[in-house]
UniProtKB/TrEMBL annotation:
Stored PROSITE patterns: PFKB_KINASES_2
Keywords: Kinase, Transferase
InterPro entries: Carboh/pur_kinase_PfkB_CS (IPR002173), PfkB_dom (IPR011611), Ribokinase-like (IPR029056)
Cytoplasm found in the keyword field: no
SUPFAM superfamilies named among the record's database cross-references: Ribokinase-like
UniProt-recorded name of the protein: Sugar kinase
Species of provenance: Streptomyces cadmiisoli
PANTHER family reported in the protein's UniProt record: PFKB DOMAIN PROTEIN (PTHR10584:SF167), SUGAR KINASE (PTHR10584)
An example Gene Ontology molecular-function term: kinase activity
Domain Carbohydrate kinase PfkB, chain residue ranges per copy: 23-313
Length: 320
């Protein structure tokens, strides 16, 4: 493909018209320890909390939400430790995701402690030990992973390690050669600061759809307004869909915001994974032929469903 063909392909694949094939997600698989507490943490003493251990990881969550939202075939490439590989494989299979989990010989599965304030905002704070999840490397990739794949989604967490960045380069080249569109979620403002905005933006060549949160979009552009930030980012990437939480989402192309979508009504319990739910539902709708604006509306609906439950993945009781 020539320099402009990626943008032209994105315009075609993100403006309606279903694509036959699987969704392949490459990203992190971790174990979430979710602690639900009420009010401020009591420093130096006990804070009462309800604590649950759940499967998680941004990449894995996106894959599970896509399967839950009706995507016909979802695949996931991730890396875990031997300590919990079998459990994660079972959880992915139960969610309808075909997992290809590389078992790391040295590192344990990544673990995230999610501190969730059960007040009105249900806001969460993460303590992250990335473990094996950031040790994905080019050797874990095979061009055969794209056989029968219509869309490749990359978790931004891959960019926060040298081996992960090398894998992203390899996967993007393979997708470009196959004509497979690629989306990416920036993943974390904390890690983005460490990586550097310029290094992140330099990694976007070949990415057709960027799915930042409000804070990520503003950080990446230095602009305080999410709409202005998304518009600016859409000069780097053909389609930008910014996730704004309780304010819904917006869609930007060619340096301008083209649509603003309202959030779906919800009573939040835990905002963990809401952005992943949005991404999973958005990509599912896009693959089914929806326009980006309609796909974003589906993303808002999934995000609302996500915040009404505990944990980052769909629970069977949540339904559609």
């Amino acid at each position: 493909m020539g320099p402009g063909s990626s943008a032209r392909a994105a315009a075609g694949t993100t403006r309606g018209g279903s694509r036959d094939g699987a969704l392949l997600v490459v990203g992190d698989v971790v174990t979430d320890v979710v602690a639900l507490h009420s009010g401020p943490l009591a420093a130096g003493t006990d804070t009462k909390a309800a604590i649950r251990t759940l499967p998680g990881g941004a990449g894995a969550n996106v894959a599970c939400w896509a399967a839950h939202w009706g995507c016909a075939e979802v695949r996931l490439l991730g890396r875990v430790g031997a300590d919990s590989a079998a459990w994660h494989e079972r959880e992915l299979a139960a969610a309808g995701v075909h997992g290809r989990l590389v078992v790391d010989p040295d590192a344990p599965t990544g673990t995230v402690i999610s501190l969730v304030d059960t007040g009105a905002s249900a806001e969460r704070t993460f303590l992250t030990d990335s473990g094996a999840s950031l040790r994905l490397e080019p050797g874990d990739w095979s061009d055969a992973l794209l056989d029968g794949v219509a869309w490749l989604h990359l978790s931004g967490y891959l960019l926060f390690s040298e081996s992960g960045r090398a894998l992203v380069t390899t996967a993007l080249a393979s997708a470009r050669a196959r004509g497979v569109p690629v989306s990416l979620d920036p993943a974390s403002t904390g890690f983005l600061v460490g990586l550097g905005v310029d290094r992140f933006l330099a990694s976007l060549d070949g990415v057709e759809v960027l799915l930042p949160s409000r804070d990520e979009a503003c950080l990446l552009t230095g602009l305080p307004d999410a709409g202005d930030a998304a518009a600016k980012l859409s000069r780097h990437v053909p389609l930008v869909v910014a996730k704004l939480g309780a304010d819904g989402a917006l869609v930007a192309r060619s340096g301008a915001v083209h649509a603003r979508l309202p959030a779906a009504p919800a009573t939040p319990r835990d905002t963990t994974g809401a952005g992943d739910a949005f991404t999973g539902a958005f990509l599912t709708a896009l693959l089914a032929g929806a326009e980006p604006e309609d796909a974003a509306a589906q993303g808002c609906l999934a995000g609302a469903r996500a915040v009404e439950q505990v944990g980052g993945r769909p629970r069977p009781a949540a339904g559609l």
